[in-house]
Amino acid sequence: MPSKPQTLQNPIIWFLVSLVILWAAPLFLPTFYVYLITEILIVSLFAVSTNVLLGFTGLLSFGQVAFFGSSAYAVSLLIKGTSLPFAASFFISVGLSALAALIIGLFCMRLRAFYFAILTLAFSQIFFVVAYKWTSLTGGDDGIVGIPKKPFFLFDINGPDAYYHFVLLVVMVSLALLYLIIRSPLGEVLQAIRDNSERTEFLGLQVRNYRLASFVIAGTFGGVAGALFAPFQGIVTPELLHWSHSAEPLMISLLGGMYFFFGPIAGAVIFVFIKEWITGFTEYWMFWYGLLLMLLIMYLPGGIMGFISEHIRRGKDGPK
Amino acid sequence: MSLLEVRTVSKSFGKLQAVSELELSIDEGEVRCIIGANGAGKTTLFNLISGRIQPDSGQVVFAGEEISGMRPPQIVRKGLSRSFQVSNYFPNLSVFQNVRIAVLSRMRKSRIFYWPVSRLRDVNQRVGELLENFNLLSLAEVTADKLSHGDRRKLEISLVVAQEPRMLLLDEPTAGMNSTETESTIRLIKDLVTRLGLTLLLTEHDMKVVFSLADKITFMHYGQVVCEGPPEEIKANQDVKEIYLGGEVC
Fold this sequence. Notes:
The complex is a heterodimer.
Chain A: H1 6-9, H2 11-28, H3 31-54, H4 65-81, H5 86-108, H6 113-133, H7 135-138, E1 144-145, H8 160-183, H9 185-195, H10 197-202, H11 207-233, E2 235-236, H12 243-256, H13 263-279, H14 285-299, H15 303-317
Antiparallel strand pairs in A: 1-2
Chain B: E1 2-13, E2 16-27, E3 31-35, H1 42-50, E4 57-62, E5 65-66, H2 72-77, E6 80-82, H3 95-106, H4 121-133, H5 149-161, E7 167-171, H6 179-196, E8 199-203, H7 207-213, E9 216-221, E10 224-229, H8 231-236, H9 238-248
Parallel strand pairs in B: 3-8, 3-9, 6-7, 7-8
Antiparallel strand pairs in B: 1-2, 1-4, 4-5, 9-10
């Protein structure tokens, strides 16, 4: 009983259409907005990767910033300290994030729920302390400044539009991969674990291994977001690794709707815009954002996407 | 030869001796029904066999291999699957997806991460067959927590059957079903057992179900086996009559 035409249901069409529109965006948008969308794209990827854990595996991790931040640091150090081409630095940093996620995941998977959340928080704090205290390597409190945008393979990505296009391509490919994973057998098993981990075990599946896989996937793509972020900002500081920064993708996922793949993207759009808009009036944008988030959670528990899908469903089922 | 052997297994929770030095032996292809009042230790026994809890002492041996001490996924992989008394499924997934998890596990395709699950034709076909067998096909797209109680029970059993086990443990499969649902479920179970030659261990309160299914009945009381034998023998047994059939429950 398909009610929509086939083309509307085909994710590849959606993917290509949004890619073309976003690719053309710098033609009709001022540079300020190109910056803003670049940031939205990076934040979206970080949030969607975190939401693989939160919304699709049912794991609350306060440590995702460890992968985002360490990758941002790694890429910055490699760019500034070695003569490696940017592409190599980029992939090495992402690989390190994946490895870090595997190692930390092996420890954290022993624990459940609350203890898992706290342990991930503790691990991310270790990363923060390393970045803060190991001054000779990380620059300590000052961080690493003046990170250039070196060419990616043969492509020059220096300049806001060029870097935007680079970020757009990497983020879209990453999102497509994550989407495929969520729609794959593995993704379905993760959702089963979220719903009922005990029953998943009684269907013959080792829950711990699947949770670990999910943790590594989230860490890897969090690392991709971090490696994009460092050259974009041109600076990395320990603040990036602070645990409060881990709350960001979680709040964004809640805001957008954590049971929807595209929820965190909707959340990221609103998050970045609100941040920009409110910081125009006051430094205390977090206060207003917190207030808004409280209201949304109380009145829109399914997030923005939950609200929209509820209305579409009501529209379909209700009297005409 | 016996497929499942429970050897002097004991389990206590605090001061409560839930199962005490219990012995049980079930032959391949047998349908065994365990009866007994609430609190007799039937569900604890199921939990011990299926690895949900570990025995304090004693052994559980399946197909000649000790399975006590193994975790549930390993036991399932050996071919021993169970259902639960309180329906235990994936509430936010559709009925189709629920069964698909079991089929993915059975077909060893649960680790594929690079291909949409909706495109795995053999998996989806198998899910369709199972849903048809259980009369759930019309509800395939319904989210599991929107199902009626009877359909939840059917889903519960279909999840076990989807794993194509050698031996099935069904914990009160018809609990809370109405009489038509009970009848169709029993017919389904009977059909499965005869067609696939499964070994079946179930607990049940409904004596009509018990007597129509079981080759042999085991009567449990206070965590111990009081007596066991073919249905007619149990029906005639004086202890069972006093404690159970005529007494505490019926």
